[in-house]
Structures are given as C-alpha cells and as structure tokens.
Specification:
Length: about 375
C-alpha cells in the first residue's frame, strides 16, 4: 500500500492542510511542537480507525472546534485506489467512509490498510504492565486475522456482562447459576479460541523476530517470548474449567470480577533468559522494539499480502551507529516509510544501490514546506 496524500481540517494544530507524499521515504522535520507526529497520527486514525497516542477521539480536535476531518488517498498493492475519510464531531462522534460508503464496523477497515508504527509510546510494550503486551498482541492479531478481532470483541462483551452478574450477586444470589451459566459457556469457548490464536501468533512472531534481533545486536543477545495464558492447558477438557469456576465462585463474587480468561494473560519478553522489563537497559528495550516492529511488518505482508506503510516517529535519532547500519539494511525491503525528526540531516547510511526518492516535509509554525531530493548510487548523501 502507498499513501499518496492526506487532507486535514480542524485536526490537532492544523486548520486546513493538504500534504502529498512520495512512494518511498518521507522525512517530516522541524522543531518540537510543530505537529510532525500529528501527521503520522492522522494516517493511523484513517488506516486503523484509531490514534496510537490517545483513546479519546475528542483529543484530536483543534482547540475551540467541534469537528475535524481527515481524508487520505491510498493505492493498494493491486493498484486499486481508495479514499478514506474520517469525520468526527462532538455530537455525532466518528464516522468513517471508504470511497464515500460508510463502514458499519471496524472489521471492514482493520487490516485492509495496514501500517506499522514505532514511536516513543511503544516503550510501554516492554516496560509496562501485562495489559500493554496484551494490547499489543490484540492490535497486531486483529490486523492479521479479522476473526480474532471479532472473537475478542465478543469476549470483551462477555466479560462485561459476566462481571455485572458477579457484582449483582454480592447483594442477591437469587438465580445466580441460571444467570451466569450461559456466560460461563461463552467464557470457555472464547478463552479457548483466543488462547490458541495467541499461541500460534507468538510462535510465528518469534520465528520472524529472532533473526532480526540477532542482526541488530550483532548476534550478542537471544530474545524470546514467554507466554503464560490464564486459560490453562488442562482446561481443554471443559469439566476441569467449570470445576475451577465453581471452586472460585465466592472469590469472584467478592471481587465482582472474572478471575480467568485472556484478559489475565501474561507475556514476558526475555533477553538471554532474563525479563527485559526488570533487567533490560534503555538501549536493549529500543533495539528489541525495533526488531519487533520489523517482524510485525513482515508478518502482515506475509499474512495479509498487502505491503504495510512503516511509520517511525521520533525514534531514529536514538538508534546507535551499529544498530542503525543493521536497520538501514532493511530499508531496501520497505516500500513506503515516514520518519519524523527535529532535524533534516538525520543519518541515513543507506546501501549504495538505494536509489529511491526521499521527500522532505518541513513544518514551521503549522506551515508545511516540501522539497524533494532523489538519491542515486554513489551520490553524496545530504
């Protein structure tokens, strides 16, 4: 997929702007606070229906405005052109159209226009609590497998309904079993399905991410995932699962919360057998995240057969020389890349045969100025 342009209206710090992109490397530069990340965020909102910075669409409104609009033009790998339009208002909330047809569910868009994002916010994947790694898995798996997204939406509704019954039971247990049994059945089926899909995904991700991480660390570290599902292996037999629920019924009622299910899973990231969250340095976290996102890019391309767009938000300057050289080797395989930075002259030690166009987009006080530069073999860079 290629993103040709974006139009912004009352979005963040942009009143009305249109930006055209090149098909390869787009470098968005300027001083901090000018709106570089806002442009990448707009691409995320259009392609994925959500921001990578906030869960509240109202945060995207320009100050004092009650509505915003994002319109992007894309070309898919099969050369079919699409227009995605996102309208948001305080009254009507969010509406997404593809070629002027309103979508009824995010199932229609999620994974169709794939993008991979690496931003400072991603630190929480390796540094944060288990919920953040679960969110990461849900996000990527939902792009790869729409059935997974549907399953998890059903699971989320099941947990909310089941928790409501548990909370009500604190005051009154009348017909408790009759109320909760149907939701226990759904909990079992969905937990089993989601756990299996997560296992398969992490195995595939490990196979792709491991050699990439090896290259980025010059083969000095070994990375792996340690998946501890809440849904235990022995619970493939339904009677054991329901026995557990019965034994912990009083505890669940007391807490008013479901104690087992994929929402309780833990995924640990290990470097040489040690938990990166506890023992990893900042450089190790950044390097693993870089390998992780390249692996996600490859998996999406393999599974969806649509080339993702790669967004690098203000992270390029933190890559050291050794890892930068290894990362730049992957540039040859990337189709379209967006990079934000506070300076134009970032180091791009690209292979000599790299002859793709590089477009510079300069942001100064919300004004956009663009220049285009083409790098050819043996030409001095910058």
């Amino acid at each position: 997929m290629i993103i040709r342009s974006v139009k912004l209206n009352n979005y963040r710090n942009f009143s009305k702007k249109k930006v055209d992109f090149c098909d390869s490397v787009n470098i968005i530069f300027g001083f901090n606070g000018q709106g570089k990340t806002n442009i990448l965020e707009a691409l995320s909102v259009a392609c994925l229906s959500k921001s990578f910075r906030t869960r509240n669409d109202g945060d995207l409104l320009q100050f004092g405005k009650e509505s915003f609009q994002i319109v992007i033009d894309v070309v898919l790998d099969n050369e079919i052109e699409k227009e995605i339009k996102v309208d948001y208002s305080v009254i009507n909330h969010k509406n997404i159209e593809i070629d002027h047809t309103k979508i009824k569910s995010i199932l229609e868009i999620f994974g169709t226009f794939p993008i991979v994002i690496l931003s400072p916010e991603d630190d929480i994947i390796t540094n944060g609590p288990p919920q953040e790694r679960r969110n990461f898995i849900n996000f990527v798996l939902s792009q790869l497998d729409r059935e997974y997204l549907k399953n998890y939406q059903d699971f989320d509704r099941t947990i909310k309904q089941r928790n409501k019954i548990l909370q009500d039971a604190k005051e009154n247990r009348y017909k408790f079993s009759e109320k909760i049994d149907p939701w226990n059945e759904k909990l079992y089926q969905l937990s089993k399905t989601i756990t299996e899909k997560r296992k398969e995904f992490l195995k595939a991700l490990q196979e792709v991410a491991y050699p990439i991480h090896q290259e980025l660390t010059v083969y000095s570290e070994k990375s792996s995932f340690n998946y501890k599902p809440s849904f235990q292996q022995g619970w493939q037999k339904k009677d054991l699962f329901f026995k557990y629920l019965e034994e912990h019924k009083n505890e669940e009622i007391l807490k008013g919360s479901s104690l087992i299910g994929p929402h309780r899973d833990e995924i640990r990231i290990l470097l040489d057998g040690y938990d990166i969250r506890k023992y990893g340095s900042r450089g190790q976290h950044r390097t693993f995240l870089l390998a992780l996102k390249i692996a996600v890019y490859k998996l999406i391309l393999q599974k969806r057969r649509e080339t993702p767009v790669f967004l690098l938000d203000d992270v390029y300057s933190e890559i050291d020389d050794v890892r930068e050289q290894a990362f730049n080797d992957y540039f040859m395989a990337l189709k379209q890349v967006f990079i934000t930075t506070h300076e134009k002259n970032i180091k791009l030690d690209l292979p000599e045969k790299f002859d793709k166009e590089i477009k510079y987009i300069y942001i100064d006080n919300n004004n956009l100025k663009t220049t285009e530069e083409v790098l050819f073999q043996n030409e001095k860079q910058f």
